[in-house]
Amino acid sequence: MAATAVAVLWLSACTGTDGEERSYRIPETLCGERVAASLLEPFMPTGEKVVTQQENPSGGTDRCKVLVDGEVSLVASQVWWDERGRVADVASVHAKVETSEAEVGTKYLYSGTGAVGRADACAAPSHPEQDLYTVVQVFSPGRDDISAMKKLITEYTRTVENSSDC
Prior knowledge:
This protein is α+β, with helices and mostly antiparallel strands. The chain has one domain. It is built from 4 helices and 9 strands; from the N terminus they run H-E-E-H-E-E-E-H-E-E-E-E-H. The strands form 2 sheets. Strands 3-4-5-9-8-7-6 form a 7-stranded antiparallel sheet. It has a two-stranded antiparallel ribbon with strand order 1-2. A hairpin with a 2-residue loop joins strand 3 and strand 4.
């Protein structure tokens, strides 16, 4: 019976909601930031192998790339930005955050393929007069889901707010 439960759990982690098969397990962290696999699942394509890569392209950005079969599927970033900025300003420089189709607020901006969140109460001496923003970008074709993106950016931002980065 335990083997059956494990098999069902593995199958549910590898089968998409639309019946697509994945030979990989959806990550439960984005380079150290815990995010439920169920929140990532709508944006993950079919494939054989998943790998995450952490990058720090500048002094104010931490980026986590999720690759499936060597192709970038999703990117989650933490970006320090001028404290006078807005979520729309951050969104304007990130691909896949479709501002023309977005739901916009003061804390979140999200579309079906990307989102920006402002992490509250985050401060770092190395980033004076800057606020921390979270960004999620989906590069997998056909993975457009605005309601799922709202849930993902909300949870990812909340996780960052509760991390040692804040």
